[in-house]
Design goal:
single chain, 118 residues, alpha+beta
């Protein structure tokens, strides 16, 4: 229950299919989520005020934990930001300002070239 987490914790870890996708100060993660899964979770929370239909469920189905792929991002099938690399390589857990960590290729620094570029 995200409401309880918000009230009782200073830091939170968001996991998807057994892997950390985002971690940081609870208030920051809930008010400015960086990972697409965290963004989806926050968007799915019904609000006390306003239209209940504003809560949007995550598309797709939760993962089958017996068939998690050995490579690639575990959120690939449900991610609105997916790229080809997401299916091939597990995203690194990148540290952002404020001590937040996020595992998403969209936030990872660009890779260095294997060979010098002329």
């Amino acid at each position: 229950d995200i409401g309880i987490v918000a009230e009782l914790t200073d830091r939170m870890v968001v996991m998807y299919a057994g892997r950390i996708v985002e971690e940081g100060p609870t208030g920051d993660v809930l008010t400015d989520p960086k990972h697409p899964y965290t963004q989806g979770l926050v968007a799915a929370i019904p609000r006390i005020v306003g239209d209940m239909s504003d809560a949007r469920p995550l598309p797709g189905s939760p993962p089958d934990l017996t068939t998690i792929p050995a490579q690639g991002c575990v959120f690939f099938d449900r991610c609105p930001l997916r790229m080809d690399i997401c299916e091939l390589e597990h995203p690194p857990l990148v540290t952002l300002d404020g001590g937040r960590r996020v595992a998403c290729h969209m936030l990872a620094p660009p890779r260095a070239h294997a060979f010098p570029v002329p």
